[in-house]
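Please annotate this fold before class:
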Amino acid sequence: MTDKHPSQNAMDKIMRGEVKQVPRWHFVVRNIVLWTLGILCILAGALTVSLIIFTFVNSAFAMRGIAYKSFWQHTIVFMPLLWIVGTLLFVGLFKFSVRHTNYGYKYPLLSILLVSFLSSVFIGIAFYFLGVSHMIDDILEMHFHTYHSVERRQARLFDNPEKGMLIGRIIQSDAESFMLVTPNGEKWRVMCEHVPQNKQHAIVDGSRFVVIGKKVDDDVFVACDVHKRGMFGINKGVQKKRMQKMHCDDSCMENHSQVLPKNIDILVQNACTHAQ
């Protein structure tokens, strides 16, 4: 007995009614699902790309010397490993989706990967400038306690009052001092009369600074120098919400002024002399 050709076997099965025709709508639905999955993968990849950009732009590498951190110590804090892995994963899923659509096998693998990657990069750049990455960063920290936002990771490097560093946003200021709120929610009364004159004008409400100086009381800090450190790619809605939470009225400033040490002038002079 000779083996039949595969096409003859297929024809025999059709003639015996063993093969049923798949409805056309099945292929239409499958294509719609696969292309939808592919588009979602590109958008998800774009989000991870925007978060990579947001992390690196706000990594403050130029200021690592202030925190006495090496290049690698600084890199470990800010390395967006999760987002890099996520981008590769979504690019791979896009390739899988396109390959299983009608005629998807005709597209070269390299072309599919290149289109997916470049699409994610360009859309991710747009997401960054629109503040989407900042919004996602804030949402993730709000709902996942194990996730640390970029702003909180900056705090790991610069929020160390015992070693003479603070980082935070000014919520109220006067000629002699300002109230600073750290990313961890702590409020500090910062004496700023010894800050260089050319930097005094930058001390305004809403500004974000790394403050160099010395802790002189539980919530009182003497500033000897300040370095403006803004957040890039911010979302205005997130920014406004945070400023509202940080609000400090006149009574807040008065309460903190009451705890100033009696020998504050001597402490200020000694602290800034030591910092120099």
Observations:
- Residues 159-275 form a domain with the OB fold (Dihydrolipoamide Acetyltransferase, E2P) fold (CATH 2.40.50.140).
- The first strand starts at residue 165 and ends at 173.
- The chain has a mean pLDDT of 77.
